[in-house]
Design a protein that fits this description.
Largest sheet: 6 strands, antiparallel
Helix content: 40-55%
Number of helices: 16
Structural class: alpha+beta
Order of helices and strands: HEEHEEEHEEHHEEEEEHHHHHHEEHHHHH
Radius of gyration: 34 Å
Shape: elongated
Number of strands: 14
């Protein structure tokens, strides 16, 4: 199973945990192993137990504890409805809402797994191994902080079906920062609810590094990563019950930080990539603008603006445009929406994208580049939910079926053009032969030959000779 392979990809011991209540007494078994085969055996042979898998690997196959952690392999969010569990269909509603609105690859990355646990959701992000548990806890804290805020916003300010589910079941996010934590395995039974856990979403295309999360996603920026001192302050605040909670204020307008990132004279652009830029990436910018126009005319204002901006800005950067132009163009495209996003939201993504990184070109030259993602066409179509009808207006943002149809039409036009060219050439050749024949007929007639004699000599009908001579 992929959960096993991604966990054991860098060695160490995974923990497959089994738990149950037997004779009114809780029983636990922590099975630490470095064998994929044994993990599959544990999963297949213990259907009468609650099945869990660790989020970390361990140095020794002795104890499941943080002091024995070799590498933390997941960031996780445990969303639960303790008193009034959600069912499978309600879990899908919540999962789809979060994929569309929370994990937009701007503030938060796309998760690798979303699991229906039997009464809630578990969201997992696969890491490329983190052997520093205190540093991992900073990122885990930042993830929980932003998800808890998003959940409160969903409950209090959304009219969606997901909001109804979250409010009705009093869904909450547990404040868990344990690197030795175990999470429920999909396709096993939650014995507490007698409901089968299910894998709702899976994406194994990418493993994240902490540095990538820090430089790419605003939720993990330096400003949002709590320090040890901040954590202590939070604990004191919780214990101080006499203090009133501060009311939330509107976020301040955030400007684009252009300091130390002016790379207009130093930016390296791979010459081999220039053709792709002209043929594929720049037309995408045109298509994204076309999509805004089409949806404005249809009265569609919500549900895609954040994703479009999150795709548009990295696409501008990948074309090698200067920073000033990227900033100007990002705000211009935002102004095209019937209901533009706040300037601060656009600037947040600009700040995360216009950051320096050292790169090395194909010929070994070192230079400076900017952080960005190159999106696949299918990813853009899926993220923006571009319909087949909308794709008809696009140049390059279309699925394979429409591409094949356009290629057939293009080839058909090309074949018709070739046929017309061949026909024109044949017609010209015939006309030339005919003109030479007529000229010879007149020459032979001038020499005194009769129509029959000319026809016999040239191998044509006598009537043809007569018609040429009578013109």
């Amino acid at each position: 199973m992929s959960l096993f392979t991604t966990l054991l990809s860098d060695g160490g011991f995974a923990c497959y945990c089994l738990g149950r209540v037997y004779n009114d007494r809780k029983e636990w078994k922590n099975n630490l192993t470095d064998s994929l085969e044994k993990l599959n055996i544990y999963r297949a042979g213990n259907l009468d137990w609650n099945n869990y898998l660790s989020v970390s690997t361990f140095k020794r196959n002795s104890r499941r504890c943080e002091s024995n952690v070799k590498e933390v392999k997941r960031l996780y969010v445990d969303m639960d409805a303790h008193e009034n569990p959600i069912n499978y269909d309600e879990a899908k509603v919540l999962a789809n809402y979060m994929l569309d609105n929370w994990f937009d690859e701007e503030e938060l990355p796309e998760p690798n797994y979303i699991v229906f646990s039997g009464r809630g959701l578990q969201i997992l992000f696969t890491l490329n191994g983190c052997d520093n548990v205190p540093e991992w806890k900073q990122y885990q804290s930042a993830l929980l902080n932003i998800c808890q805020k998003l959940l409160e916003n969903l409950k209090n300010h959304s009219l969606s079906e997901a909001s109804d589910v979250a409010v009705e079941h009093n869904v909450s996010i547990d404040d868990l920062k344990d690197a030795a934590r175990v999470m429920r395995m999909p396709d096993t039974v939650n014995l507490k609810q007698n409901v089968e856990a299910k894998l709702l979403y899976e994406n194994e295309e990418h493993e994240y590094t902490l540095n990538e999360l820090n430089t790419t996603f605003t939720a993990f920026s330096d400003d949002n990563l709590p320090t040890i001192d901040e954590k202590k302050t939070k604990k004191k605040t919780k214990s101080d019950k006499g203090k009133k909670k501060k009311t939330k204020s509107e976020p301040a307008e955030r400007n684009v930080d252009m300091s130390n990132i002016d790379m207009d004279d130093k930016q390296i652009v791979d010459p081999n990539f220039l053709k792709i830029i002209e043929n594929t990436i720049k037309p995408r910018l045109f298509d994204l603008e076309t999509l805004i126009r089409v949806r404005n005319e249809a009265g569609i204002d919500d549900g895609y603006r954040n994703n479009l901006i999150a795709i548009y800005i990295p696409t501008l950067v990948s074309c090698g445009y200067k920073n000033d132009y990227v900033v100007k163009e990002a705000h211009r495209i935002n102004s095209l929406f019937n209901k533009p996003l706040k300037q601060a939201e656009v600037n947040d993504w600009l700040n995360s994208c216009l950051k320096k990184k050292e790169i090395v070109s194909a010929d070994g030259k070192k230079g400076v580049g900017r952080v960005y993602y190159r999106f696949y066409t299918n990813t853009i179509i899926e993220k923006l939910q571009i319909t087949p009808e909308e794709q008809e207006s696009m140049k390059v943002l279309c699925d394979e079926k429409l591409k094949r149809k356009r290629n057939r039409e293009k080839n058909k036009d090309k074949q018709n053009a070739n046929r017309r060219e061949v026909y024109a050439q044949k017609t010209a050749d015939k006309r030339k032969v005919k003109e030479e024949r007529n000229k010879r007929i007149h020459e032979l007639s001038a020499d005194g030959l009769s129509a029959r004699q000319i026809a016999k000599q040239l191998g044509v009908n006598a009537s043809t000779v007569s018609r040429v001579l009578n013109k």
